Amino acid sequence: RRWLGRALRAQGRLVEARAAYRQALKRAPRDAAVLNDLGNAYVAEGNHDQAVRQFELAAKADPRLAEPHYNRAHALRQAGREDEAKAALGRYLELAPEDPAGARLVLASLGAAPPPPEAGAAYVRALFDESALRFERLLVEELGYRGPELIHELAAPLTGERLAMLDLGCGTGLAALPWKPRARRLVGVDLSPAMLAAARARRIYDSLHEAEIGAFLAATEERFDLMLAADLLIYIGAIEPLFVAAAARLNPRGLFAATAEAAAEPDAVTVGRGLRYAHGQATIARAAAASGLSVAAWRTAPGRSESGRPVPFHVFVLRKE
């Protein structure tokens, strides 16, 4: 019944999913995994108070289980009970100090901790593996995402033909698609196997690699004329190590073209309620200069929407001298 409930919840059939979980709980009333899943069904319905109750029951049923504490924090945050959410996140981190769910990001978004250096590979992989099938519909059709378009508009006048290209955090291949006619070689790298499967289906890449980006750049012997990083920096707080690693694999006069959500203050690095990093213009320019890269082009423009409001993006091209 639990797996039936999960399948029904994945299809959006929430009333039926809850009924399946209730049936499972009749057989095993203290099954922490089922109680946790039932809480997730209530979250999907927007019934955060009932979700909190189910997560509390799951945590009591199995005190060693970390996930209900994180899920309870999420429901509390959605309900505006932020102090309680912070406490739940603290308990989660006691049980799961490796933080695969990104609790430290949530604490930063609540102003309870400084932004961590990056979102973390386990968190990012899980996020995109779970969303791969609906990724483009959600991002492009529902949120009006324009990152690949903005990068192409800004960088295309600065490039030639027959480019050796690397798509960092390639996802499903959206950012690379308009560049294929100019590519002599097109390489993609991403953490998520599900996203890479979608990119592979596009048949535009010469090679695809499942890897953490820093590790890939350190290991590869290839050099590139153009690197793309669309919607990558929103998962990285400390961006200078990435810029240094990218510069080392760029050809002379090679370009690094990217987007970043724009922080309100030029020197800031922040984490918003959507658990994405935003960077100030001065922060990006300073990291670029320290990496031996100069700003070749820059603009700030709406890149997507959130809660019906436009989200400003920094769109920039850096050049290796």
Shape: elongated
Could you give a short account of the major beta sheet? 9 strands, mixed
The quaternary state of the protein chains shown equals single chain
Structural class: alpha/beta
Q: Strand tally, please?
A: 9
Give the amount of beta strand, in percent.
Answer: 15-25%
* Poorly predicted ranges: none
Helix content: 40-55%
Rg estimate, integer Å: 21 Å
Indicate the mean pLDDT: 95
Order of helices and strands: HHHHHHHHHHEEHEHEHEEEHEE
Report the total helices: 14
Distance between the termini: 61 Å
Main features:
single chain, 321 residues, alpha/beta, 9-stranded mixed sheet, 14 helices, 9 strands, 21% strand
Explain what this protein looks like in three dimensions.
Helices cover 46% and strands 21% of the residues. With 321 residues, it is of the alpha/beta class. Strand 4, helix 13 and strand 5 form a beta-alpha-beta unit. Helix 1 (2-10) runs antiparallel to helix 2 (14-27) and helix 3 (32-45) packs parallel to helix 5. The longest helix is centred in the N-terminal third of the chain and has 14 residues, at 14-27. The relative contact order is 0.09.
